[in-house]
Amino acid sequence: MTTTGTQAYGEAWYWDNRYSNEPGSFDWYQKYPTLAPIINLYVPHSQPILVVGSGNSVFSEGMVDDGYTDVVNIDISSVVIEAMQTKYRDRPHFKYIKMDVRDMSPFESGSFGAIIDKGTLDSILCGNNSRQHATKMLEEVWRVLKDNGVYILVTYGAPLYRLRLLRESCSWTIKLHVIEKLASEDKSNNNPVWELTKPVPLNDDGSSVDEALGQNPDVHYIYICTKEIK
Ligand SMILES: C[S@@+](CC[C@H](N)C(=O)[O-])C[C@H]1O[C@@H](n2cnc3c(N)ncnc32)[C@H](O)[C@@H]1O
Predict the structure, then answer these.
(1) What is the pLDDT of residue 188?
(2) In the record, which residues are listed under signal peptide (predicted)?
(3) Among 63, 100, 107, 189, which one is least packed by beta carbons within 10 Å?
(4) Is 120 in the pocket of ligand 1 (CB under 6 A)?
């Protein structure tokens, strides 16, 4: 069977190829400055942080410049990890490790206070056997999080397509925020569909989100999933 189009987003060879051909930095969905208010709200500066599927984005650099001192980045692509290690060779506290988010066995359980995912679960959901791979990923994310740690998922996936997966994988306590898709570009937009730092009401099936935002709002979704130990 051939893997075509976005189906290949779950494959290491696709990303190796892409990063070989596009060596410059690129941030999917959103850049650090637009998401900083949410990161600052949920992630204390003292916590060890893991960025999964970090790619060649400058998001982690933004976090470090904002005072986060312990940020570890992993990606399945050896091409991008080597490129980032070279880029930051004079800044040894920028940590880049080649690792598959579905098997983070080099990390002990409970290692991180926060895990940030911008576009990586989405990529895994594009591939073959996506449900199985996504569940494996989420179980590993849960394992390496400390108790009361947060998994911050930035995605194009609306609650209808993400809530069940999140809830069935682990017993997360979930809050939802949204940000305009063009927030990074459109600095003049003083009238967002919803205030970034205010959680959107979230009921069991997510229908409350449509009531609050209308159908098909032009937003990225930010799921704040807490490993709350009751
Ligand atoms: C859509 S890109 C997002 C990159 C970056 N987070 C950003 O916001 O710009 C998805 C990234 O996930 C990585 N990736 C895909 N599958 C992975 C896996 N199983 N484990 C770790 N990284 C993976 C890809 O190599 C790619 O860098």
Answers:
(1) 57
(2) none
(3) 189
(4) yes
Mutational pocket test of ligand 1: of 7, 20, 72, 76, the residue with most ligand atoms within 8 Å of the beta carbon: 76
pLDDT digits (tens, 9 = 90+) for 9-29: 989 999 999 999 998 999 999
- Report the nearest-CA residue for atom 13 of ligand 1: 53
Question: How confident is the model over 26-72, as pLDDT tens digits?
Answer: 999 999 999 999 999 999 999 999 999 999 999 999 999 999 999 99
Per-residue confidence (pLDDT) for residue 3, from 0 to 100: 59
CA 190 to ligand 1 centroid distance, Å: 31
52 alpha carbon to ligand 1 midpoint, in Å? 7
Q: Which among 19, 75, 82, 154 is the best mutation to test ligand 1's pocket, defined by most ligand atoms within 8 Å of the CB?
A: 75
pTM of the entire predicted model:
0.96
Nearest residue CA, atom 2 of ligand 1? 119
Architecture category of domain 5-22+30-226 in CATH: 3-Layer(aba) Sandwich (3.40)
Rounded to 5 degrees, what angle do the CA atoms 42, 121, 185 make? 65
